[in-house]
Amino acid sequence: MRIGIGLPNQVRDVHAPVIPAWARRAEEAGFATLGTAGRVAYPGVMDTVALAAAAGATTTIGLLSQVLLATTWPGALLAKEAASIDGVSGGRLTLGIGVGIREDDFVVPGHGPRDRGARMDRDLATYRSMWAGEPVPGSPNPAVPAGGRQVPLLFGAMTPAAYRRMAESSDGYIAGSVPAALASGAFDAARAAWQAAGRVGQPRLVAHNYFALGDPGRGRANIADYYAATAEYQDIVVDNVHTDAGSLRDTVQQFEALGADELILGPGTDDLDEITRLADIVL
């Protein structure tokens, strides 16, 4: 199982210049992937911007959005944004997406929370078309340079529609920021949907948890603030923040036992020393 680390772009009032420095240090430490979590209506760094900054600051580490709120974007615009990040990174991006749940993140006129599932289904076709080099709707020009690729897609969420989209249109599934015991059922549902869709092999399964080692109190508070609008889910996430070596090592073992392909550990603060603290425990 690969171990990745989140970028601190979701930390309230993050010191934005830390993003490329964090990316470089995480690559040097040996993490497999840099992940992002992002909202619009929150004082952080946009996930696409954080991923682009990380792409420019690194050469080998993977890049993953987990998850980007796809339906808050016009489909053609997000398709070009993702292809651009993938291109400048040399093909290191995996686009993890979901439909979004917080109404205040939907700020683009005509792209509100209503009918976002149907919009996602339409947008998936747009992504594939534009990544294949087909013209932008209404234009003779393609949106992406020749020689690009279909950006790998993962889906998050735990609804029947999300599992269906994952199985029909993506490479795998991202579980929520929950303990392994809760993620187990989501992984099983993803595998079942994959099989029902007639897909060969197994979906790529990615897990996500949070950690706060240097200042556990501040880290927990930051994570609680980020999830403040999600009711019971906030309690699950905050109660599952790892603040010591034993908890982190147990979690790695538990997700390995579930058959997860990757575990991304997201930071509760933007303290650069958290990278070394985490690496010393899990790598």
TrEMBL record:
<dbReference type="InterPro" id="IPR036661">
    <property type="entry name" value="Luciferase-like_sf"/>
</dbReference>
<keyword id="KW-0288">FMN</keyword>
<dbReference type="Pfam" id="PF00296">
    <property type="entry name" value="Bac_luciferase"/>
</dbReference>
<dbReference type="GO" id="GO:0046306">
    <property type="term" value="P:alkanesulfonate catabolic process"/>
</dbReference>
<feature type="domain" description="Luciferase-like">
    <location>
        <begin position="19"/>
        <end position="236"/>
    </location>
</feature>
<protein>
    <submittedName>
        <fullName>MmcJ protein</fullName>
    </submittedName>
</protein>
<dbReference type="GO" id="GO:0008726">
    <property type="term" value="F:alkanesulfonate monooxygenase activity"/>
</dbReference>
<keyword id="KW-0560">Oxidoreductase</keyword>
<dbReference type="InterPro" id="IPR011251">
    <property type="entry name" value="Luciferase-like_dom"/>
</dbReference>
<dbReference type="InterPro" id="IPR050172">
    <property type="entry name" value="SsuD_RutA_monooxygenase"/>
</dbReference>
<keyword id="KW-0285">Flavoprotein</keyword>
<keyword id="KW-0503">Monooxygenase</keyword>
